[in-house]
């Protein structure tokens, strides 16, 4: 394998006890990722490989800390770098928006209950 072509394959133990295989390859500037989880079957960016780049905790099988650092370095200046960074940015904002909406909804639900249990003003 030349220096311009690198591949790592590892397994991730999923939350429900399922185990998935992830293959990450860097060929020149191209970074390609495949996961055999249900989302990965549709080429949807799944947490089994995104977590390597976000630092989220996963149960990796077959990856050392050095492997993780090496793979993280593959993202830099790859064709996936900007697109993934933008996706992660918007996913973060989406999560914050959902949390904010849920807080506002709880507050409004409480206000409606307060009105319903209050004595009407004559």
How would you portray this structure in words?
With 122 residues, the chain is of the alpha+beta class. The protein folds into 2 domains: 1-79, no CATH class; 80-122. Helices cover 49% and strands 22% of the residues. The chain has a 4-stranded antiparallel beta sheet. A hairpin with a 2-residue loop joins strand 2 (19-27) and strand 3. It is elongated, with a radius of gyration of 22 Å. It starts with a strand and ends in a 5-residue tail after the last helix.
Give a short overview:
This protein is α+β, with helices and mostly antiparallel strands and 122 residues long. It has helices spanning 38-41, 47-54, 65-75, 81-117, and strands at residues 5-13, 19-27, 30-35, 59-61.
Number of helices: 4
Helix percentage: 40-55%
Strand order, sheet with most strands: 3-2-1-4
The chain-level structural class is alpha+beta
**Which parts are unreliable, with pLDDT below 50 for 5 consecutive residues or more?**
none
The span between the termini is 84 Å
Could you tell me the strand content as a percent range? 15-25%
Query: Secondary-structure element order, as H and E?
Result: EEEHHEHH
The total domain count is: 2
Shape: elongated
Please state the average pLDDT score. Answer: 90
Report Rg.
Answer: 22 Å
Keywords:
122 residues, 2 domains, 4-stranded antiparallel β-sheet, 4 helices, elongated
